[in-house]
Every structure is written in C-alpha cells, then in structure tokens.
C-alpha cells in the first residue's frame, strides 16, 4: 500500500524512481480506506534529506499513510529553502487542534547543549505535552529520544568521552515484543551522538521497557508498555552515505573526528559504505506503524 504525499514534494520523485508505491491526493481521495495520519516534527538541518529517509520507511508497509510535516516557529532552518518550508510545512499552531495516529520527532545536532538552552525547547515541550492527548503513538529519534525521556520521565543524559559514531550491533531483549518482532538476534544500526542515556536510570521507571540494546552503543530502543511513546537512540532512518557525509563535514571543519566504526570496508573512506541496517530499519518502522498504531488507534480520531 502507498504513502500519501503531494506530487510536488521532492520525496515523491525520489521514491517513485525507487519503485516505491506513492499515491497523490486525488487518487487517495477516491478510496474508502482511512489513511493513518502521521505527523513528522523535523528538527534536522537538512530537512529534505530527512523527509526522504523517513518517508522511504513509512511507505514500506501495506498501510496507507497521510503525512503532515511540522517545523518549529522558534527556530527557522538555515539549510532548507524557505520556499520548500512555506509550501510543505506547518507550524504547531496550525495543527494543534488536530488528532494524529502517529508522530515522529527527529533528532537534532544539539545534544551537547543543556535541554533548556536549546532555542526551541519550550516549543518542543509544548508539542510533547500536546502529544499525550492528540497523538496515539510517538517515536522519538536520537536527540529527541533523550529529550523525550528527560521531559516525560526526568531521565538525564550524559556526555560521552568520544562521539558514538558508526554502525553497531544490537540484540533483542524480548523476541516476542511487537516493536522488535522479526529482528535477528543480532542486527545493526547507525549511531551519531555525543551523549547517552543509561540503563539504570530507565529501569527505575516501571512504565518503560528496554527492548533492544548494544554492548558498544548502550540502550537502543525503549518504549512505554502501552507503546504510546517509543524512544530510539540511534538513526535507523539514515541512508547509506549519511555517516560518510557527516564525517567529511566534520573533517572539513577541523573537528577531531574518528572514522565511523564498522562502516567503510577496511576503514577506507574511498570505499562505498556498507549498508547493513536497511532490513532492520524496515522491520522496526513497519512494526511501529502496524502494531503500535494501526492495530490499536481508534478509527474515529476524535475519540482519542
């Protein structure tokens, strides 16, 4: 089944060229199936890139999905054309009266700042508070996972001695859990962050479950037992070359950055990066849409 997005959105052509089933509004309006309403609060600098990444995985299920893109009003992106933002994005004030089956909050390159010092922190907390009553299930990615755990459960983040940067192996703590169902005993996923949350802090919150973790990268997938909130500390949505682009960007800035671990063959940056997490990412995003949203969200969202 398709994902429903405007034909003018860059992702429409990108995903169509990849033979991914995309549906425009006119065709979708002629169907009797109610699409899942999914909002994406995009905090990443290169918003078009992140749109393509997330929409690629949200389209890889038998479910019809209708997307609403949201940007912050308290901080305006400097890396995305204003014409694109004006055409395809809404502000929170524009949509706060609506109900959504799901919400994704992306990461952001601000994890070394105190939460309260982030320009849009107040706005973000308003959105996370609103999600309690207006969204059935919310996924928080990377920094947003740390922000969500801090806001909802007062769980702190900790500075790392060096950046967690590369592709790391992970295990599944409960093979019957809905979110991790179908994952291999060992699977891979990207991380790119300077901070972490710790198992011992999460275990103090009875409402939370640690569904996946890594010996090297630590806690990975955390969720409330009712799956109304999901926290993923890495970047399963990343493309093959995303870590490479981040590495080259940081090297050009003169940062003391190591080559991403377990990413380039023989650690040779001239080699094509190994894409080892595409399957696990499809499973996790598909499981979220199916088990955490579609199977449980009310047909009439006004009853949420």
Automatic annotation (TrEMBL):
CDD domains linked: GATase1_HTS
HAMAP family from the UniProt entry: MetA_acyltransf (MF_00295)
Function: Transfers an acetyl group from acetyl-CoA to L-homoserine, forming acetyl-L-homoserine.
Source organism of the structure: Clostridium gelidum
Site residues, Important for substrate specificity: 192
Main location: cytoplasm
Site (Important for acyl-CoA specificity): 111
Domain of life: Bacteria
Protein name as it appears in the record: Homoserine O-acetyltransferase
Subcellular location: Cytoplasm
Active site: 142, 235, 237
Listed InterPro entries: Class_I_gatase-like, HST_MetA, MetA_family
Keyword Transit peptide: no
SUPFAM superfamilies: Class I glutamine amidotransferase-like
Annotated pathway: Amino-acid biosynthesis; L-methionine biosynthesis via de novo pathway; O-acetyl-L-homoserine from L-homoserine: step 1/1
Binding site for substrate: 163, 192, 249
Gene: metA
Pfam families to which the protein is assigned, alphabetical: HTS
Cytoplasm keyword on record: yes
